[in-house]
Amino acid sequence: MKVVISEDTDKFYGDQIKTLDPSIEIFSINPENPKSPSWAEVPECDAFFLSYQFLFAVRDHEELFEPMLDLCKKMKFIQSGYAGMDAPFLQAVLKESQAVIANASSIYGKPMSHYVLAQMLRWNKRIDEHAIMQKEKEWMPNGGDGELTDKTLVILGYGGIGKEVAKLGKTFDMKVTGIRRKPEECDYADEVLSLDALEGLLPLTDFLVMVLPDSESTRDIVDASFLKKMNPSSMLINVGRGSAIVEDDLADALNNGTIAAAALDTTKNEPLEKDSKLWDAKNCFITPHDSAHSLMSLPRSFNLFLENLSNLKNSQPIKNLWEA
């Protein structure tokens, strides 16, 4: 068996691959240097750990696109370090490579759910207002709603990340509903319903958390009509793809009080345009698509690769198999 990994991955984790099978041949390459002889010498291989080191490099340096795509075409299996597959490079891999591909959606649930919890508490405890009062040396007690107990949390896109959000929500005694195309029972939510149920839930929802992928069926799902159905005191939190939201409609809804607050970790175009209405929208909290960042991301993604390498070797099902 032949595998391709980055030099850094080899340095820190190469021994673990050998522990799986000492006969595995490792090709270790520098993600940012396609002119290195090691790139040209890589033969057809069984597996490629397309870690975020490779993905960040190809995102930031367009000259790496073609040589890295050529590398992917030599692979039978590719483990992506990203949760989604909508990055232009990964779209090209899906189109031009014959490899079996797995994503890493299962590894980002904890940091992203922590982000969601932080934003809910930020709003519920009025943390930003307190920061302003401190800066202005004002003493005006304002505890907001005080706690999350019995608040209604609806999670639109109830996969691995959504379940981690639900788990934290139940820890805070929230009422949790998951929404997904194919409902299923889950220990973490009080109920899991189909998309048809969402419209009836919106007026009763305190926190709407969106974890949707980018697809034709999800684009612009949150528009003015959708927002008017929401609870006026509710908060919308988006850690899914920004394409799900009509951004001008959301900005208007925040400014006119249709909804109370929003936290956006993703936007339709990134970076968000300087002239976007969202920057100055009332109670709109924007972060630069970093909710998944964690010092644990690389070891978790490598462990997923190692697990799938074992599955591949033993003819077992691939975890996080990408299916369009």
Describe what is shown at a glance.
By secondary structure, the chain is of the alpha/beta class.
Would you give an account of this structure?
With 324 residues, the chain is α/β, with parallel strands linked by helices. It has 2 domains: 126 residues, 3-Layer(aba) Sandwich (Rossmann fold), CATH 3.40.50.720; 178 residues, Rossmann fold, CATH 3.40.50. 36% of the residues lie in helices and 16% in strands. It contains 12 helices and 12 strands. It has a 7-stranded parallel beta sheet, covered by helices on one side. Strands 2-1-3-4-5 form a 5-stranded parallel beta sheet. The longest helix is centred in the last third of the chain and has 17 residues. The chain is elongated.
Question: What labels describe this entry?
Answer:
12 helices; Rossmann fold; seven-stranded parallel β-sheet; elongated; five-stranded parallel β-sheet; 16% strand; alpha/beta
**Radius of gyration using CA atoms only:** 22 Å
In total, the number of domains comes to: 2
* Percent in strands: 15-25%
Distance between the termini: 27 Å
* CATH domain class of the largest domain: Alpha Beta
Number of helices: 12
Briefly note the structural class of the backbone. Answer: alpha/beta
Helix and strand element order: EHEHEHHEHEHHEHEEHEHEHEEH
What's the structural blueprint in terms of helices and strands?
Elements: E1 2-6, H1 7-20, E2 25-29, H2 37-41, E3 45-50, H3 52-60, H4 65-72, E4 75-80, H5 88-96, E5 100-102, H6 109-124, H7 127-135, E6 152-156, H8 160-171, E7 175-179, E8 191-193, H9 198-201, E9 207-210, H10 224-228, E10 235-238, H11 247-255, E11 261-264, E12 284-286, H12 297-313
Parallel strand pairs: 1-2, 1-3, 3-4, 4-5, 6-7, 6-9, 7-8, 9-10, 10-11, 11-12
